[in-house]
Fold:
Amino acid sequence: MREPEYHIKLTEADGAKYAIIPGDPGRTEQIASYLDNPREVMFNREFRTFEGYLEGEKVLVTSTGIGAPSAAICIEELAHIGVKTFIRVGTCGGMQKEVKPGDLVIASGAIRQDGTSKEYMPIEFPAVADIDVTVALREAANKLGLSNHTGVVQAKDSFYGQHDPDSMGAGYELKDKWQAWLKGGCLASEMESGILFIVASLRRLKAGAVFHCVWNQELAGHGLPEEMKNENTDGAVRTAVEAIRILIKNSKEG
Structure:
Protein backbone atom coordinates (compact mmCIF):
# COMPACT_ATOMS: atom_id res chain seq x y z
CA MET A 1 0.00 0.00 0.00
CA ARG A 2 1.23 3.49 -0.84
CA GLU A 3 2.08 6.09 1.77
CA PRO A 4 -0.77 8.40 2.83
CA GLU A 5 -1.53 11.20 0.40
CA TYR A 6 0.67 14.18 1.22
CA HIS A 7 -2.06 16.71 2.07
CA ILE A 8 -5.27 14.84 2.92
CA LYS A 9 -3.32 12.11 4.79
CA LEU A 10 -5.59 9.31 3.56
CA THR A 11 -4.63 5.94 2.07
CA GLU A 12 -6.34 3.55 -0.33
CA ALA A 13 -7.78 1.77 2.72
CA ASP A 14 -9.72 4.99 3.46
CA GLY A 15 -10.96 5.27 -0.13
CA ALA A 16 -14.46 5.20 -1.56
CA LYS A 17 -16.08 5.62 -4.97
CA TYR A 18 -18.08 8.68 -3.92
CA ALA A 19 -17.15 11.94 -2.19
CA ILE A 20 -19.00 15.09 -1.17
CA ILE A 21 -16.60 18.03 -1.02
CA PRO A 22 -17.57 21.23 0.82
CA GLY A 23 -15.09 24.05 1.21
CA ASP A 24 -15.56 24.62 4.94
CA PRO A 25 -14.06 22.01 7.31
CA GLY A 26 -16.82 22.92 9.77
CA ARG A 27 -19.46 21.76 7.32
CA THR A 28 -18.10 18.22 6.99
CA GLU A 29 -19.64 17.04 10.25
CA GLN A 30 -23.06 18.42 9.28
CA ILE A 31 -22.94 16.61 5.94
CA ALA A 32 -21.68 13.37 7.48
CA SER A 33 -24.59 13.39 9.94
CA TYR A 34 -26.86 12.47 7.00
CA LEU A 35 -24.82 9.31 6.33
CA ASP A 36 -25.11 5.97 8.13
CA ASN A 37 -22.45 5.27 10.77
CA PRO A 38 -20.49 8.50 10.26
CA ARG A 39 -17.06 8.91 11.81
CA GLU A 40 -14.19 11.36 11.46
CA VAL A 41 -11.18 9.85 9.70
CA MET A 42 -8.62 12.63 9.36
CA PHE A 43 -8.10 16.38 9.76
CA ASN A 44 -4.94 17.88 8.25
CA ARG A 45 -4.59 21.53 7.21
CA GLU A 46 -7.89 22.53 5.58
CA PHE A 47 -8.70 18.94 4.64
CA ARG A 48 -11.12 17.36 7.14
CA THR A 49 -12.57 13.96 6.24
CA PHE A 50 -15.51 11.96 7.53
CA GLU A 51 -16.73 8.63 6.21
CA GLY A 52 -20.19 7.09 6.28
CA TYR A 53 -22.48 4.92 4.21
CA LEU A 54 -25.45 5.32 1.86
CA GLU A 55 -27.28 2.29 0.45
CA GLY A 56 -24.43 0.17 1.84
CA GLU A 57 -21.82 2.12 -0.16
CA LYS A 58 -18.99 4.00 1.54
CA VAL A 59 -19.03 7.78 1.00
CA LEU A 60 -16.34 10.30 1.99
CA VAL A 61 -16.95 13.90 3.03
CA THR A 62 -13.77 15.97 2.65
CA SER A 63 -13.34 19.74 2.89
CA THR A 64 -11.26 21.48 0.23
CA GLY A 65 -10.65 24.86 1.83
CA ILE A 66 -11.24 28.08 -0.09
CA GLY A 67 -10.36 28.48 -3.74
CA ALA A 68 -9.04 26.50 -6.67
CA PRO A 69 -5.45 25.61 -5.61
CA SER A 70 -6.43 23.71 -2.47
CA ALA A 71 -9.51 22.23 -4.15
CA ALA A 72 -7.34 20.83 -6.96
CA ILE A 73 -5.03 19.18 -4.44
CA CYS A 74 -7.96 17.62 -2.59
CA ILE A 75 -9.63 16.29 -5.76
CA GLU A 76 -6.38 14.87 -7.12
CA GLU A 77 -5.54 13.09 -3.87
CA LEU A 78 -9.06 11.73 -3.38
CA ALA A 79 -8.89 10.36 -6.93
CA HIS A 80 -5.59 8.67 -6.03
CA ILE A 81 -7.37 6.67 -3.29
CA GLY A 82 -10.26 5.60 -5.50
CA VAL A 83 -12.90 8.34 -5.63
CA LYS A 84 -14.61 8.42 -9.02
CA THR A 85 -17.64 10.66 -8.38
CA PHE A 86 -17.55 14.07 -6.71
CA ILE A 87 -20.29 16.45 -5.66
CA ARG A 88 -19.27 19.89 -4.46
CA VAL A 89 -21.69 21.50 -2.01
CA GLY A 90 -21.17 25.11 -1.01
CA THR A 91 -22.45 28.65 -1.08
CA CYS A 92 -22.74 31.23 -3.85
CA GLY A 93 -23.92 34.73 -4.59
CA GLY A 94 -26.84 35.01 -6.99
CA MET A 95 -26.36 37.03 -10.18
CA GLN A 96 -29.68 36.81 -12.06
CA LYS A 97 -32.74 38.40 -10.46
CA GLU A 98 -34.63 35.09 -10.34
CA VAL A 99 -31.94 33.56 -8.10
CA LYS A 100 -33.10 34.50 -4.62
CA PRO A 101 -31.29 34.04 -1.30
CA GLY A 102 -32.14 30.55 -0.08
CA ASP A 103 -32.47 29.08 -3.59
CA LEU A 104 -30.22 26.32 -4.87
CA VAL A 105 -28.01 26.69 -7.93
CA ILE A 106 -26.91 23.51 -9.73
CA ALA A 107 -23.91 24.17 -11.97
CA SER A 108 -24.04 22.74 -15.49
CA GLY A 109 -20.76 24.49 -16.26
CA ALA A 110 -18.41 27.16 -14.96
CA ILE A 111 -16.69 30.29 -16.24
CA ARG A 112 -12.99 29.64 -15.67
CA GLN A 113 -11.99 32.90 -13.99
CA ASP A 114 -9.34 31.16 -11.90
CA GLY A 115 -5.63 30.58 -12.37
CA THR A 116 -5.24 26.95 -11.34
CA SER A 117 -7.34 25.39 -14.10
CA LYS A 118 -5.16 27.07 -16.72
CA GLU A 119 -2.31 24.82 -15.56
CA TYR A 120 -4.49 21.79 -16.32
CA MET A 121 -6.10 22.70 -19.65
CA PRO A 122 -5.94 25.67 -22.06
CA ILE A 123 -8.60 28.29 -21.40
CA GLU A 124 -10.52 27.31 -24.55
CA PHE A 125 -11.44 23.95 -22.93
CA PRO A 126 -14.84 24.24 -21.19
CA ALA A 127 -15.47 23.44 -17.53
CA VAL A 128 -18.57 21.25 -17.76
CA ALA A 129 -20.33 19.18 -15.10
CA ASP A 130 -21.05 15.49 -15.62
CA ILE A 131 -24.57 15.08 -17.02
CA ASP A 132 -25.51 12.11 -14.81
CA VAL A 133 -24.47 13.90 -11.64
CA THR A 134 -26.25 17.08 -12.72
CA VAL A 135 -29.48 15.21 -13.46
CA ALA A 136 -29.25 13.45 -10.08
CA LEU A 137 -28.84 16.82 -8.33
CA ARG A 138 -31.90 18.25 -10.10
CA GLU A 139 -33.92 15.14 -9.31
CA ALA A 140 -32.86 15.35 -5.66
CA ALA A 141 -33.68 19.06 -5.31
CA ASN A 142 -37.10 18.58 -6.92
CA LYS A 143 -37.82 15.52 -4.77
CA LEU A 144 -37.05 17.57 -1.67
CA GLY A 145 -39.26 20.41 -2.90
CA LEU A 146 -36.46 22.96 -2.96
CA SER A 147 -36.39 25.96 -5.30
CA ASN A 148 -33.52 25.41 -7.71
CA HIS A 149 -31.91 26.71 -10.91
CA THR A 150 -29.51 24.95 -13.28
CA GLY A 151 -26.97 26.74 -15.44
CA VAL A 152 -23.55 28.33 -15.71
CA VAL A 153 -21.76 29.80 -12.68
CA GLN A 154 -18.69 32.01 -12.36
CA ALA A 155 -15.69 30.39 -10.64
CA LYS A 156 -13.42 33.22 -9.51
CA ASP A 157 -10.18 33.52 -7.55
CA SER A 158 -10.73 36.79 -5.68
CA PHE A 159 -13.63 37.19 -3.24
CA TYR A 160 -12.88 40.87 -2.71
CA GLY A 161 -12.29 41.38 -6.41
CA GLN A 162 -16.00 40.73 -6.81
CA HIS A 163 -17.23 42.63 -3.78
CA ASP A 164 -14.90 45.63 -3.98
CA PRO A 165 -13.62 45.83 -7.57
CA ASP A 166 -13.03 49.61 -7.40
CA SER A 167 -10.26 49.01 -4.86
CA MET A 168 -8.38 46.75 -7.29
CA GLY A 169 -5.86 47.85 -9.89
CA ALA A 170 -7.64 45.60 -12.39
CA GLY A 171 -11.09 46.76 -11.27
CA TYR A 172 -12.01 47.97 -14.76
CA GLU A 173 -11.51 44.46 -16.13
CA LEU A 174 -13.35 42.79 -13.27
CA LYS A 175 -16.38 45.07 -13.73
CA ASP A 176 -16.48 44.67 -17.51
CA LYS A 177 -16.30 40.89 -17.27
CA TRP A 178 -18.98 40.83 -14.55
CA GLN A 179 -21.33 42.65 -16.92
CA ALA A 180 -20.49 40.14 -19.66
CA TRP A 181 -21.30 37.21 -17.36
CA LEU A 182 -24.63 38.84 -16.45
CA LYS A 183 -25.52 39.33 -20.12
CA GLY A 184 -24.66 35.69 -20.81
CA GLY A 185 -27.08 34.48 -18.16
CA CYS A 186 -24.57 33.38 -15.52
CA LEU A 187 -26.60 32.37 -12.48
CA ALA A 188 -24.20 32.77 -9.59
CA SER A 189 -20.64 33.37 -8.43
CA GLU A 190 -18.49 31.00 -6.35
CA MET A 191 -14.86 29.82 -6.25
CA GLU A 192 -14.25 26.10 -6.84
CA SER A 193 -16.50 24.55 -9.49
CA GLY A 194 -14.29 25.48 -12.46
CA ILE A 195 -11.28 23.56 -11.17
CA LEU A 196 -13.50 20.64 -10.08
CA PHE A 197 -14.93 20.22 -13.58
CA ILE A 198 -11.55 20.63 -15.30
CA VAL A 199 -9.74 18.12 -13.07
CA ALA A 200 -12.66 15.71 -13.46
CA SER A 201 -12.51 15.97 -17.26
CA LEU A 202 -8.76 15.46 -17.39
CA ARG A 203 -8.76 12.55 -14.92
CA ARG A 204 -11.94 10.92 -16.33
CA LEU A 205 -13.96 11.46 -13.18
CA LYS A 206 -17.62 12.41 -12.70
CA ALA A 207 -18.38 15.69 -10.97
CA GLY A 208 -21.25 18.01 -10.17
CA ALA A 209 -21.93 20.94 -7.87
CA VAL A 210 -24.85 22.41 -5.91
CA PHE A 211 -24.79 25.76 -4.15
CA HIS A 212 -26.91 27.51 -1.57
CA CYS A 213 -27.48 31.14 -2.58
CA VAL A 214 -26.44 33.32 0.36
CA TRP A 215 -27.46 36.63 -1.18
CA ASN A 216 -27.83 38.43 -4.50
CA GLN A 217 -26.12 41.80 -4.87
CA GLU A 218 -27.81 42.36 -8.25
CA LEU A 219 -31.35 42.61 -6.84
CA ALA A 220 -30.96 46.28 -5.93
CA GLY A 221 -29.98 47.06 -9.53
CA HIS A 222 -33.35 45.71 -10.66
CA GLY A 223 -35.24 47.90 -8.19
CA LEU A 224 -35.80 44.94 -5.89
CA PRO A 225 -34.92 44.77 -2.19
CA GLU A 226 -31.49 43.27 -1.65
CA GLU A 227 -32.31 40.53 0.80
CA MET A 228 -30.15 39.81 3.78
CA LYS A 229 -27.80 36.85 3.90
CA ASN A 230 -29.36 33.41 4.28
CA GLU A 231 -26.67 31.18 5.78
CA ASN A 232 -28.65 27.95 6.26
CA THR A 233 -27.06 25.50 3.81
CA ASP A 234 -29.11 22.49 4.91
CA GLY A 235 -31.08 22.31 1.66
CA ALA A 236 -27.93 22.13 -0.47
CA VAL A 237 -26.45 19.52 1.87
CA ARG A 238 -29.56 17.32 1.73
CA THR A 239 -29.64 17.69 -2.06
CA ALA A 240 -26.04 16.55 -2.41
CA VAL A 241 -26.61 13.56 -0.12
CA GLU A 242 -29.80 12.54 -1.92
CA ALA A 243 -28.06 12.88 -5.30
CA ILE A 244 -25.32 10.50 -4.14
CA ARG A 245 -28.03 8.08 -3.02
CA ILE A 246 -29.65 8.30 -6.47
CA LEU A 247 -26.33 7.71 -8.23
CA ILE A 248 -25.57 4.68 -6.05
CA LYS A 249 -29.00 3.18 -6.72
CA ASN A 250 -28.65 3.83 -10.46
CA SER A 251 -25.22 2.17 -10.48
CA LYS A 252 -26.52 -0.90 -8.66
CA GLU A 253 -29.43 -1.18 -11.09
CA GLY A 254 -27.00 -1.04 -14.01
Summary: The first strand starts at residue 18 and ends at 21. The chain has a mean pLDDT of 95.
